[in-house]
Amino acid sequence: MLMANDSIFYRYIAVGNEPFLTSYQGQFQSYIIPAMTNIQQSLVKANLASYIKLVVPCNADAYQSASVPSQGVFRTELTQIMTQLAAVLSSSGAPFVVNIYPFLSLYQSSDFPQDYAFFEGSTHPVVDGPNVYYNAFDGNFDTLVSALGKIGYGQLPIAIGEIGWPTEGAPSANLTAARAFNQGLINQITSNKGTPLRPGVPPADVYLFSLLDEEQKSILPGNFERHWGIFSFDGQAKYLLNLGLGNSVLKNAKEVPYLPFRWCVANPAQNLDRVSDHMKLACSMADCTTLYYGGSCYGIGEKGNVSYAFNSYYQQQKQDPKSCDFDGLGMITYLDPSMGECRFFVGVDDSKSSAVASCGNRCCGICFGAWVLASCVFLYVRMMGSA
Predict the structure, then answer these.
(1) Average pLDDT over residues 151-159
(2) Which of 8, 142, 373, 376 is the most exposed place for a label (fewest CB within 10 A)?
(3) Where is the X8 domain (predicted)?
(4) CA distance 310 to 349
(5) Rounded to a whole number, what is the distance in angstroms from the first to the last CA of the chain?
(6) Catalytic residue among 77, 162, 168, 225
(7) 192-220, pLDDT tens digit by residue?
């Protein structure tokens, strides 16, 4: 049971996640306000309403602009529900939560200026009267500010529920780009710079998405969907990232209980003509997205592809010898088959998870649905002056 003295670990309760997506065709709109009312009553009864705020994380497709941020408006069919939502949020002291992904804008449009997705300035700035926008985040954020203003809530606090950059699965998804984006974001937020329409007022909260990769996540939007983590599956930081809070840099997990250092690869003595069905089986169970265009293992050759798929399945099956048979096409090796940036991983022994893989003196974070919350500031940058 959640008690009042436990509330320090919880800041928000999300009522749904991106329920106003265009693809949902309005099917969830009628449930949002009643659900918020019921949950709010429960928080009041539990004396938690002053500690925990109800929010509705919205996708950035809830609002739009014909050309510049100052013309931002909510989609016509959402005007009424957004006005109601803003009123509820304002009365309870909760922020409007939005998920912003400049990566998706770049991924979905070949005409999107690449440098505009980052924070180092752009050769294609957006000029909006006296305001000039040099990055997509500021432009998107202020489009929402304008939309809120047009329904009478221009001063409503805004929190970023999800924002990040993937490291695999698309040409623009790589370690260099992910570090550049996330570090640029952190630097901007911690500088308290704000945006042209809210100068000196950064978002109330910002949650980086995400802590770890999700190897079973749907790849319908793209292969990158499984690779948003700033840590690899074994708790190792993928790249250097300074959180801007003293010495709060990412720490690698320690004492990780790895399985024995052995791998499953294609047997070089066997003809691989019969391998396609085995590849399909392996990749239907394990993650092979790094083999495709934009992945770190793209271009390692046919035998490399087979070996990577076999090993991914083998590690997922906790190195069960039978899982490396593949009708004699696989074999176990003690030599690391990794090639360049393509890492053939070794799994983690879940049976030894009680041995606690720690991240220095910090916890590694916990995940609630689509939100990754970290009480140790890993993914959570809270704006409190210089804090």
Answers:
(1) 98
(2) 8
(3) 262-344
(4) 18
(5) 31
(6) 162
(7) 999 999 999 999 999 999 999 999 999 99
Question: pTM to 2 decimals?
Answer: 0.89
> CA 61 to CA 77: how far, in whole Å?
12
Token readout for 248 is 């709060």
Give the burial string for 150-181 (b: 16+ CB within 10 Å, else e): bbebeebbbbbbbbbbbbbbbebbbeebbbbb
Q: How far apart are CA 337 and CA 263, in angstroms?
A: 8
**3-class SS string, 193-242:** CEECCEECCCCCEEEECCCECCCCCCCCCCHHHHCCCCECCCCCECCCCE
Contact (Cβ atoms closer than 8 angstroms) between residue 116 and residue 136? yes
- Is 215 one of the catalytic residues? no
Is 341 tagged catalytic? no
Token representation of residue 12: 């928000």
Give the pLDDT mean for 265-282: 96
Examine the pLDDT at 381 and tell me if it is beyond 70: no
Which of 18, 120, 214, 255 is catalytic? The answer is 18
